[in-house]
């Protein structure tokens, strides 16, 4: 497989490392007997960081890889592609 990088990949790695740090905190909190509320807040932070990383990756893929594959389209044919890109924000 060839190397595949986009400008957003460093941002994605940063988000995933943040999630990794939060997840390690969750494990430590559970082992230390912290309150469920505190643990739930940290788990929420993990989910949010991973979700943002996934969203950024998918949007970047659509913006670059899909565009490269289908090529330039006339304005009237772009509507479906633009709608598809917009709906991925709700993943």
TrEMBL record:
One of its GO terms (biological process) is negative regulation of DNA-templated transcription. InterPro entries: Metal_Tscrpt_repr, Metal_Tscrpt_repr_sf. Gene3D superfamilies: Metal-sensitive repressor, helix protomer. It holds the Pfam family Trns_repr_metal. GO terms for molecular function: DNA binding; metal ion binding. It comes from the Bacteria. Keywords: Plasmid. Belongs to the FrmR/RcnR family. This is Metal-sensing transcriptional repressor. It comes from Ensifer adhaerens (Sinorhizobium morelense). The lineage of its organism: Bacteria, Pseudomonadati, Pseudomonadota, Alphaproteobacteria, Hyphomicrobiales.
């Amino acid at each position: 497989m060839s190397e595949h990088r986009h400008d957003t990949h460093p941002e994605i790695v940063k988000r995933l490392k943040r999630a990794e740090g939060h997840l390690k905190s969750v494990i430590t909190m559970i082992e230390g007997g912290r309150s469920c509320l505190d643990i739930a807040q940290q788990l929420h932070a993990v989910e949010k960081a991973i979700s943002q990383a996934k969203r950024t990756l998918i949007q970047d893929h659509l913006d670059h890889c899909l565009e490269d594959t289908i090529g330039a389209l006339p304005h009237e044919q772009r509507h479906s592609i633009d709608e598809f890109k917009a709906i991925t924000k709700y993943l």
